[in-house]
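Appendix B. Chain record.
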Amino acid sequence: MNVPFRVDNCSIERTLDIVGEKWTFLVLREAFSGVRRFADMQAVTGAPRQVLSARLARLVDEGLLRKEPYREPGQRQRDEYRLTDKGRDLYPLLVALMHWGDKYLADEEGPPVLLTHRDCGAPIEQHFRCADGHEVGGPREVTRMPRVGGPAQKRIGA
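C-alpha cells predicted for this chain:
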C-alpha cells in the first residue's frame, strides 16, 4: 500500500504562491500572445489598474517577466514587459489549463481559441512521456515517491 506523505518543500505549493491567481494567469496569457505594454494588457484582460500593476511587479520580482524601457515620440519613457526563459517555461502549464477548459468548460460552439503549429497548421497537443520515451496516460500510470536524499518527508498519521 502506498502510504501518503506530506512534502515539506512542495514545488506545486511554491509555484502556486507565485502564479496561483486569476489575474496572474491572464497576464501570462497575454504575454505569451505578444502583448507587452501595460495599457494593452489592461484593455485585453480587464484587470483593475492597481491589480495589474501589482501582478506585473510580482512577475518581474520573481523573474518571469523583465522590464524593457521604450518611449513613444513626445511621450515619457515607459516599460514593456517581456517574458524571460523562466516565464516562457510556464507555457505548457498555461496550455494544459486551456485544454482542460476547452474540454470541460467551453460553450456549445466550442473553444474560443485554437492553438496550431505555425509551420504546418496542425493543432497543438500535449503528451506526457517518461525519460525512456514511453507515453504516460495519466495519474494511474505514475508512482509518487520521495526523492532519496531530499528534504525530510512526514508520513501522514505517523
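Further analysis of this model is presented in Appendix C.
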